[in-house]
Design goal:
Layout: H1 2-13, H2 26-43, H3 56-62
Length: about 70
């Protein structure tokens, strides 16, 4: 799972900004990495959720969001 996460981060990091994606893109990058890690966990039989539950939308909904008042 670490390798798929690292590969996806590498794919998303290619660009003018250097080694890592821009800070403004971190939430989107985290979602992309979570999606590939969930798929890999499912493929390895390690995920407790069914494949249909591991959608981009369900993962995005489970992400913590800071709410400042």
């Amino acid at each position: 799972m670490f390798m798929v996460a690292a590969r996806r981060l590498g794919e998303l990091s290619q660009g003018e900004n250097g080694l890592l994606p821009a800070v403004t893109e971190l939430r989107d990058v985290a979602l992309e990495i979570a999606v590939v890690v969930a798929a890999q966990a499912q493929a390895e039989g390690l995920a407790t959720a069914a494949p249909e539950e591991l959608t981009r939308e369900s993962i995005a909904q489970s992400m913590w969001q800071a709410v400042y008042n």
